[in-house]
Design goal:
The chain has 247 residues and is mostly helical. The protein has 2 domains: 168 residues, Up-down Bundle (Multidrug efflux transporter AcrB transmembrane fold), CATH 1.20.1640.10; 64 residues, no CATH class. It contains 7 helices and 2 strands; from the N terminus they run H-H-H-H-H-H-H-E-E. It has a two-stranded antiparallel ribbon with strand order 1-2.
């Protein structure tokens, strides 16, 4: 039994460490998982169950199931940044931890609750069962959901607000959106520079035509059409009548 529980816990620790890439957060999540199993052992005693292969199987499953209620909130805590307009207000490690824990719980709490509640509805149909297998399955999974959600919602945020890391961890989705916005801004700047270049070229052509019309001959006393650039980069045709040389 001890070897099975130990290997299962070690596997969970490795997976959580890969997901979070933070030793402190992994340690706190592991603490919540161990507490869930400890509470489950107490529930086995008070609910009149005995240790056997079936009960041990549920305890091992509890290690992998209860991590779901904690690691989501822990990951939301890690990727939650401090907004630029709030960095003066949250300028100490204690305030940063408290802000990140509250925000992570508010953003991810509903999703975790819906997952736990839907699992409870799925096993609630086994509550009136008289068969021992179904009875053990319902009672232990009831404890897994209850203790796992309690540790994820109540105990883990408190631990994160006291011992949680304060450094900012890059969110891959936010970083991708930031790269796309930067590329969009670069494209707009390139189009604006090209438009400005076209306007300057059109302006130089207009000045050349105006200089050629500075001293018109009497034979050219008619309407002369010249090009003028407007401020939007478009081209408009302006008609001007040249004045004949009086000499």
């Amino acid at each position: 039994m001890a070897e099975t529980l130990g290997s299962s816990t070690l596997a969970v620790i490795v997976v959580v460490l890969i997901i979070t890439s933070d030793f402190t957060t992994t340690l706190l999540v592991t603490c919540c998982i161990c507490l869930t199993d400890l509470f489950l052992v107490g529930l086995i005693f008070y609910w009149g169950l005995t240790f056997n292969a079936l009960v041990l199987l549920q305890i091992v499953l509890a290690i992998g199931t209860s991590v779901d209620y904690s690691v989501h909130i822990a990951y939301a805590y890690l990727i939650e940044p401090i907004p630029e307009n709030k960095k003066r207000k949250y300028d100490t490690p204690e305030k940063i931890r408290k802000y990140k824990a509250q925000t992570a719980l508010s953003k991810m709490g509903s999703s975790v609750f819906h997952g736990g509640f839907s699992t409870f509805l799925a096993i609630s149909v086994l509550s009136p069962a008289k068969t021992y297998i179904f009875l053990v399955f319902y009672r232990l999974w009831f404890g897994i959901i209850l203790f796992g959600m309690t540790n994820g919602f109540l105990f883990l945020p408190v631990l994160l607000s006291i011992f949680g890391p304060t450094q900012d961890v890059a969110n891959p989705e936010a970083a991708e959106e930031e790269i796309k916005e930067k590329e969009h801004e670069d494209t707009d700047s390139l189009l604006a520079s090209e438009r400005s270049y076209d306007i300057n070229d059109t302006g130089r052509d207009s000045l050349s035509e105006l200089s050629s019309l500075h001293s018109p001959s009497p034979a050219n006393s008619q309407h002369i059409t010249m090009v003028k650039a407007n401020k939007f980069g478009g081209v408009s045709m302006v008609s001007a009548r040249s004045v004949a040389d009086s000499t």
